[in-house]
Design brief:
The chain is mainly beta. Helix content is 0%, strand content 51%. The protein has no helices and eleven strands. The chain has strands spanning 3-7, 10-13, 18-25, 34-39, 46-51, 58-60, 68-73, 78-83, 92-99, 109-112, 116-121. The strands form two sheets. Strands 2, 4, 5, 6, 9, 10 and 11 form a seven-stranded mixed β-sheet that branches. The protein has a four-stranded antiparallel β-sheet with strand order 1-3-8-7, with no helix packed on it.
C-alpha cells in the first residue's frame, strides 16, 4: 500500500510562486515514476509534470513549461513541484500520483494523494 500526502498549496497573487511537496509512504517509491496533475472546477484532471524513478527523465505540459520544475528526493520519499510566474489559469487542486507507466494519462497512475488547493488571484 502506498500513501501520498501533498502540501504547499495556498493563495498567491499572479506572478507569485509556490512549492508543492508530496511525501510518499510505503514501498517502492524510488522504483516508481511520479507525476503531478491538476483539476480545476468543472474540468477534467490534467497532466502537469512527470519525473522518472531516478530523475533522469522529466517532462512537462506545454501550459507550465518554463514556469515549473519537478524534482524528487528518493532518500526522503518526496517529490516536489516548484511553480513560478503563476497565473489565474493555474488555479486548481494539484495531485501527486505514482506511475505504473510514466505517461500523461491519469489511467496509468495507480496511487493518488488527496490534493492541495492552489488559488492564483489576478
Amino acid at each position: 500500500q502506498v500513501q501520498l500526502v501533498e502540501s504547499g498549496g495556498g493563495l498567491v497573487q499572479a506572478g507569485g510562486s509556490l512549492r508543492l511537496s508530496c511525501v510518499a509512504s510505503g514501498r517502492s517509491f524510488s522504483g516508481s515514476g511520479m507525476a503531478w496533475f491538476r483539476q480545476a472546477p468543472g474540468k477534467e484532471r490534467e497532466f502537469v509534470a512527470a519525473i522518472s524513478r531516478n530523475g533522469g527523465y522529466i517532462y512537462y505540459a506545454d501550459s507550465v513549461k518554463g514556469r515549473c520544475t519537478i524534482s524528487r528526493d528518493n532518500a526522503k520519499n518526496t517529490v516536489a513541484l516548484q511553480m513560478n510566474g503563476l497565473k489565474p489559469d493555474d488555479t486548481a487542486v494539484y495531485y501527486c500520483a505514482r506511475a505504473r507507466v510514466l505517461t500523461t494519462r491519469t489511467l496509468d497512475y495507480d496511487y493518488w494523494g488527496q490534493g492541495t488547493q492552489v488559488t492564483v488571484s489576478s
